[in-house]
Amino acid sequence: xxxxxxxxxxxxxxxxxxxxxxxxxxxxxxxxxxxxxxxxxxxxxxxxxxxxxxxxxxxxxxxxxxxxxxxxxxxxxxxxxxxxxxxxxxxxxxxxxxxxxxxxxxxxxxxxx
Length: 113
Prior knowledge:
Blueprint: H1 4-9, E1 17-20, E2 24-28, E3 36-42, H2 57-73, E4 81-84, E5 100-104
Antiparallel strand pairs: 1-2, 2-3, 3-5, 4-5
């Protein structure tokens, strides 16, 4: 069964794209928690970061570099932003498909959650 993100990648469900390349897609979150809230999602399914393997190293690095490039493109790189990866139920994971949240555009408090 396909995850929600696989359906978006396959264009079965619409989403507002922020970026796409051969390795990942980035979409604007439908329930944003900050003025900028983009999800960077690998096209190849990795269920969660805790299940990533050494074979996924290049993909993981690509997600982070893409998020940083999007922060620059979306105008939040200079003021700051947060990258979040949820893992498991208690970590806030809601879709079993690894993704990086890019949040910014306002001061973000600490600690989160």
